[in-house]
Design a protein that fits this description.
This protein is of the alpha/beta class and 338 residues long. Helix content is 12%, strand content 29%.
Length: 338
């Protein structure tokens, strides 16, 4: 039986056309079928697996039980878990959420993420960008170095993941299970010589071919999308200063140029921050100049800490000569000696 008010399609002579009713289409029937195999890499031994840009598109990703293998993900993802891997080299694109490493040993991991967690791991080299404080638990022999990487899609992937390249807290590590008299983790001030995260073996079809070798993919400090810092644990030698750059939009380019020139002149970029300048910080750092900034825009400011001989004079001279050549609205800078 049916509703007396239901309508049926009729042909020209007024009778119902048999078989003319279309089946109901639901939204879940029209969804694109996902290939789950793209989201999991497991059980590799002595092999290579590569995900090129556009494969994950912000979806989560898992690596499980791999040994002596190269896993390369040149795409952004929502979250990544790496479990039970040994002697692997893992390269991950920007991750908008958390990266979890569990029960891994003798691995090298290059990753940019919002949160980093490692548990029950040993002998890891982690080349890290982390927007928050990295955390380890029940780990030993973990070496951290600053993230250094560049390839054509990386800038847009950082943006898609919501990560700011100037907010890297890689060296601010917290150990939940410290051992008295022992150091479970260390900070490296330079990249390990000879390390290259992109395997080049044409005999393996899943491996990155020659189109992803230099110059497209690079871990050179000078080309890295994330400026290289030596971290909070760096032993300062000589004077230090903080350069504060206040401005509206479109300041990234001038600031990056300033950093490159300061480093080229022999100065060390210790750490950096991209955040609004609060009234309290303005009063503490800028003292009598702070009153002129209370009513300025609350756009994020750049805080760059440098170390080196004559670093204060070098920063002042370079900033004055460099920033005046950029047509950036409301750009101003301050060099503070600490």
């Amino acid at each position: 039986m049916g509703c007396v008010f239901s309508r049926r399609k009729r042909n020209k002579n007024g009778t119902s056309a048999p078989g003319s009713e279309q089946p109901t289409q639901y939204s879940w029937d029209q969804r694109r079928k996902e290939d789950i195999s793209d989201l999991i890499v497991q059980g590799l031994t002595g092999q290579s697996k590569t995900h090129r840009p556009g494969v994950l598109c912000g979806r989560p990703f898992c690596v499980q039980a791999c040994c002596d293998s190269d896993i390369v993900v040149l795409d952004h993802s929502a979250a990544v878990s790496v479990d039970d891997c040994k002697k692997c080299r893992i390269t991950l694109g920007p991750v908008s959420g958390s990266v979890f490493l569990r029960n891994c040993k003798d691995c090298t991991v290059l990753v940019a993420c919002q949160q980093f967690r490692a548990r029950d791991c040993s002998k890891l080299l982690v080349l890290l960008y982390c927007a928050t404080q990295p955390i380890i638990e029940a780990c030993a022999g973990i070496e951290f170095a600053c993230y250094q990487c560049d390839y054509p899609e990386l800038a847009s992937q950082f943006q898609a993941a919501g990560l700011d390249v100037f907010n890297n807290n890689w060296s601010n590590v917290h150990d939940f299970t410290p051992i008295v008299g022992e150091q479970n983790w260390t900070i490296l001030t330079s990249l390990v010589p000879g390390y290259h995260p992109i395997p080049c073996n044409p005999s393996q079809p899943d491996c990155c071919d020659e189109t992803w070798t230099e110059p497209l993919f690079s871990i050179d400090q000078q080309r890295s999308i994330v400026p290289a810092t030596l971290g909070r644990a760096y032993r300062l030698i000589g004077p230090i200063c903080v350069v504060i750059v206040l401005s509206g939009a479109d300041t990234d380019g001038p600031v990056r140029t300033f950093i490159n020139e300061m480093v080229r002149c022999g100065n060390i970029l210790v750490q950096m921050k991209h955040a609004p300048l609060s009234d309290s910080h303005a009063c503490r750092l800028l003292e009598n100049k702070a009153s002129n900034l209370m009513d300025t825009s609350r756009d994020p400011s750049f805080f760059l800490e440098f170390n080196g001989e004559n670093v204060v004079e070098s920063a002042k001279d370079l900033a004055e000569s460099l920033f005046k050549n950029f047509t950036v609205r409301n750009l101003s800078f301050f060099v503070v000696s600490l």
